[in-house]
Amino acid sequence: MVNLSRDFFIALSKNKFLNKNAKRWGFQLGANKFVAGTNIDEVIEVINNLNRAGIRCTLDHLGEFIFSKEEAIEAKKQILYTLDRIYFEQLDCHVSVKLTQLGLDIDYSFCVENMLEILNKANQYNIFVNIDMEDYSHYERTLKVLKELQKYYENVGTVIQSYLYRSREDLEKLKNVRIRIVKGAYKENGEVAYQTKKEIDREFISLVKERLLGHSYTSIATHDHSIIQELIRFVNDNGVKKDNFELQMLYGFRTEMQYELAKEGYNFCTYIPFGTDWFGYFMRRLAERPQNINLIVKDKLYTKDNRLKKQPIVLSLILTLSFIFWRLGKYNTFSLHNSNYGIQPKGLANDKISKRKKLKG
Ligand SMILES: Cc1cc2nc3c(=O)[nH]c(=O)nc-3n(C[C@H](O)[C@H](O)[C@H](O)COP(=O)(O)OP(=O)(O)OC[C@H]3O[C@@H](n4cnc5c(N)ncnc54)[C@H](O)[C@@H]3O)c2cc1C
């Protein structure tokens, strides 16, 4: 069931129709729990409050499904404007960007040009720019763009996902780059990525520990309290300087814990998404953690005195119908996938099937 809901929400996150229309709906379904606002003005107060508590921030101006150069240029302008606001409002904040938002799927050189413009301004303001890691189909190109940008600027880094088999090797090549380590938010197949939570967690801990013993700055991005506790023990046992790393969590997640860790003296950074393009991001968060859905359902469907609200009934209906259509579609796709196995070399096909059968936690 966990995998079913994960697949469902990942599928919704990629649905162009819903993503496009969600911009017009404004925040719905409780998205404001995880997305700080639709524009930078709404978000500045949030950042100021976090900064006052000793928490720094990274701002992500949300944008998915960029199909034209005009859209990518508009996204770049928004990011440049965000940098201006961070600088002039004197916020303790950097930015996180996605290369697809800046035209990676349209034209590689155009995307690099956009990034250079962003880095140029960020560099003048002494602001760091993080390139978020997207799904595996963009992985190689993201690392390639990073390498290109590093010829000109140092204020840039990226993300390594512990679910990928190749992460250790890539991390080795990125020894001198500021890196955020995450578990990975997309659905990847067994040919490139670990499939079980146990393996992904094990790799996450191991990769972070390896980095912490080096000298480059590392952002440890997880909401997993047991992993955080284990890593804090490791830091203390090995005399790792607090200045060498920060803990990161997403806006709206484990807020109390975020404040506590900052109070305990750890560098803490909250990742703050904002903008009208909230749907894909929001669906990926629901995919990650079924409990988030309960939270939203309770908050959105019921009034304080436990009575059903009317408006969300329509939205629930949309979600239910989407789920039914998705299931129907999935059965068709599933049989296609199975026929694909037929043309694989036998060993590989069996391996793939057995890996896919292991359920991700
Ligand atoms: C700052 C940040 C940036 C990210 N950037 C990227 C990126 O660029 N690319 C990418 O692919 N992914 C990114 N991710 C997402 C990441 O890959 C994971 O999908 C996501 O963080 C879920 O993994 P987790 O370790 O946080 O918790 P999980 O593995 O989902 O949960 C582990 C355990 O933690 C506890 N827990 C988790 N969440 C909560 C909660 N809200 N309340 C209470 N307990 C909780 C529960 O006990 C749970 O069992 C980012 C995540 C963060 C935090």
Describe what you observe in this structure.
The chain has helices at residues 2-13, 16-25, 40-52, 69-88, 108-124, 139-150, 167-173, 197-212, 225-237, 255-263, 279-288, 290-301, 311-342, 346-357; strands spanning 56-61, 93-97, 129-131, 156-161, 179-182, 218-221, 245-250, 268-274. The protein has 361 residues and is of the alpha/beta class. The protein has a domain at 36-277: TIM Barrel. Strand 6 (218-221), helix 9 and strand 7 form a beta-alpha-beta unit. Helix 4 (69-88) runs parallel beside helix 5 (108-124), helix 8 packs parallel to helix 9 and helix 11 crosses helix 12 (290-301). The model is unreliable at 331-361 (pLDDT under 50). It binds flavin-adenine dinucleotide. Flavin-adenine dinucleotide is lined by residues 132-133, 159, 161, 182-186, 221-224, 248-250, 253-254, 271, 288-289. Flavin-adenine dinucleotide binds at residues 132-133, 159, 161, 182-186, 221-224, 248-250, 253-254, 271, 288-289.
